[in-house]
């Protein structure tokens, strides 16, 4: 809307393409960006495979420069066309956009900083910006609402888990000890986490009868308390998905929601018409 | 019903046997087909065991030809008796029926294509056609409705998982690196999937303290977020299973919903007609 | 009650002690039986440990004979005091009682049948008979109702799992093949089950890139579809735990349960008094 | 309140600082205590790592004495300032406070009792006392209510699990036997627990076809019945989180429950008094 007055300028047009998904050009831009991001991630991954690096290392480095250049141009255009450049630069995505470009330039001057290139994987996060494209976002919203609502309970749960693995890990360190691979308390706690979460790598296993008995206890604990986060999230999600209310309008004040068996509007006291289809309202209420 | 006018012809009778399960002959046909499909699957599996192949390879090959012949005859009869042969041939099951037969014939002419025989396992899918026999299908329906309703949320969840394992995998590659078995980013992502899903093969395990700390984080993440698909599906299934509401209208006040065994309208007191099919409604309600 | 007329006879008294838990003597009998069963299980287990068998084998064998004798006496008393001995002998628990005794006697005459002694573990099941003692049974009932209600859906789910592991297993056999440990289709299906259920022993692991990609798919499938049985059971259990109905009695016919907002009894059509505490009933209904 | 009359004395001031979190000094004390507890846990853990112990063993021992002294002073102050010292000393936290100090002193006189130092990990539990600081406690309450409500069902479930692993373990012992690592029934039961809980270490794996078939059954059982504790806890948590129902009575018809923002009774149309504390009720309702 602010862009109206200068809607003919190049800058405004770039702004529309880059920041607004509703126009065909904006959509095309977002889709291209998604493709380039994913391609650049693929290049980073392929380059980490020894045989591929040996055979196509130079090609991949070349491609990487193409992507970096594209991202750099995109970044400059974003800064240029943004209505409040400073806000963009220091926003979450603004920072990620810089981090997606910088490593390549730094590695140019300090060849030893090759490892820095890994940071490019952070480009992955840019994918989420493009996601405004899809209708899935409203679904993600339900999940986020439920996650936010369960946050406190999840923290309490994680605190309980932390205590459990500390105590179990220390006990295993005492019982099994260094000869059986439980060389220190932190390592034994690591084992307790591996076991409680039912991952069970098998790189450390109890060998004494007492250790195996305690391990059984850890496993059954882990198996049973998975119910806790699941229960929390399920209950919260069911809440988030509950339809907001019943629709029966008051003839006088037009308040739209009333209890199923209400005979009078509870805002203005006017008589309500009988519920037309008690069954249906009951249906939606029982959610 | 369309088959009425030519109900005396052989073709119509075959059609009834093959396509309609309601007649005794149709039932018998479907059960025989189920047995043959399962037997042919068993033969394919047994033949893949070295010792069995060495001892009974010829027998199994013979049996396989018997099954292939039976399936070929069945296929021809289906095409012949179908009311719209073209529709059948290009339908999902029509194509699977061909794929169930072809490999054997191709392997006859190109002996090197032995491996193609594996495709026969696709016969497994044919079992599902025969399932129309059982009353379990209405139950599968509940599950499918719930799965379809949760599809979008599951996609969002899988996208989140993908991001998580990419980031975790790359971090592990940087932390542990090739000396500890994390030889490339894709392989490290594979490890992250193995760990996040709490499978934990143990073929790759972190050996540094920092790696084990990050691994602990991956495991606890995986352990906690299993709550997400479970919560989604549980909430949707609860929705899908809600009784649709019984429809029995009061002749005087037209209230549409009544308890199953109600004899009088509980709004105006008028007598209700008896419930038409109490058993069925009770059945569906108690689910 | 049938026992009234001969309530002074020894037989009736034994019957009361063995079959009725409500008397102090009956309780004492059941508790002793529980202790003896658990002790005999402990003996069987300890005897299977090599070092224990070497050191205390004779003692344990002696103890075993004490338990067997006790169980034999108990069995004879049950048959003697039972009101319908034949019914008892061929009942579920009657058969288990015999199986708990027989192996010892058979092993006496055929010393080679030592392995038969394992059957004694079936005594474990006898524990459940004694459980009538505890108030937990009504809770088990909720679980059983929910399990029974979800039976059909669970069968459909298991059928889907079976298809999945067959297809995944066969694909892994084709991709990885015997050199990497996937020596036959059944063994590959075993691997697929190990992986899909997120157990992940690690005795067979994919080594090719394609195999690891497919394995990732198997793991994520397994991780996501655990939601299905959980969702089914949770929904059914919530149903089973729902209070049967509201208590508002009809003044004429005394039918005790009515819809919350009912004004007339739906059995006899008499006018109902208004719900005394709509809030409370609503509360309990919405469970 | 009892402390009023002697509110100027040192003892009362210490009491306020130590036992009451509402004052700034009390908060500061609790936060410092939390930091010291966590630091002392860190020292215990670091000291268990061989390389760290070799390099900084003396420093850590020194730090440990500092912490022990602090805890000892704190304990004495607690006893001194407590209104009923005896009650405190024999309370749960009072005992833990002693156990957190004693080992160091005992190890001073009996140097062989080094291992006793492990008991210091029990200090971990002291963290929970400090948690009264945070608002998370009301959330933990929901979880505890749900856990308490599901206790009986969980016990029934664990009893079922115990029977399952005993029977499965014994069968595996018979099928696989000592040559394949299933050396005794208890060890085989341990394997059954590892497998049923989907941990799957892989230190013991079935090698015969029959053993792998039974193992598949164990795994699928474990995979499916995780639904049981999850279902139980989810259903109970949903119950615990249900808003208690708002109590606001209609002055004319005495209907006890109304919507939060209702101004008129929806049964008789009489005006209601305004809701006394809309904010709080809304808050608790939206949970």
UniProtKB/TrEMBL annotation, chains A, B, C, D:
<keyword id="KW-0851">Voltage-gated channel</keyword>
<feature type="transmembrane region" description="Helical">
    <location>
        <begin position="89"/>
        <end position="110"/>
    </location>
</feature>
<keyword id="KW-0406">Ion transport</keyword>
<feature type="transmembrane region" description="Helical">
    <location>
        <begin position="130"/>
        <end position="147"/>
    </location>
</feature>
<dbReference type="GO" id="GO:0005249">
    <property type="term" value="F:voltage-gated potassium channel activity"/>
</dbReference>
<keyword id="KW-1133">Transmembrane helix</keyword>
<protein>
    <submittedName>
        <fullName>Potassium channel</fullName>
    </submittedName>
</protein>
<keyword id="KW-0472">Membrane</keyword>
<dbReference type="GO" id="GO:0001508">
    <property type="term" value="P:action potential"/>
</dbReference>
<keyword id="KW-0633">Potassium transport</keyword>
<feature type="transmembrane region" description="Helical">
    <location>
        <begin position="28"/>
        <end position="47"/>
    </location>
</feature>
<keyword id="KW-0407">Ion channel</keyword>
<keyword id="KW-0812">Transmembrane</keyword>
<feature type="transmembrane region" description="Helical">
    <location>
        <begin position="214"/>
        <end position="238"/>
    </location>
</feature>
<feature type="transmembrane region" description="Helical">
    <location>
        <begin position="154"/>
        <end position="175"/>
    </location>
</feature>
<dbReference type="InterPro" id="IPR005821">
    <property type="entry name" value="Ion_trans_dom"/>
</dbReference>
<feature type="transmembrane region" description="Helical">
    <location>
        <begin position="59"/>
        <end position="77"/>
    </location>
</feature>
<feature type="domain" description="Ion transport">
    <location>
        <begin position="27"/>
        <end position="239"/>
    </location>
</feature>
<dbReference type="InterPro" id="IPR028325">
    <property type="entry name" value="VG_K_chnl"/>
</dbReference>
<dbReference type="InterPro" id="IPR027359">
    <property type="entry name" value="Volt_channel_dom_sf"/>
</dbReference>
<keyword id="KW-0813">Transport</keyword>
<dbReference type="GO" id="GO:0008076">
    <property type="term" value="C:voltage-gated potassium channel complex"/>
</dbReference>
<dbReference type="Pfam" id="PF00520">
    <property type="entry name" value="Ion_trans"/>
</dbReference>
<keyword id="KW-0630">Potassium</keyword>
<keyword id="KW-0631">Potassium channel</keyword>
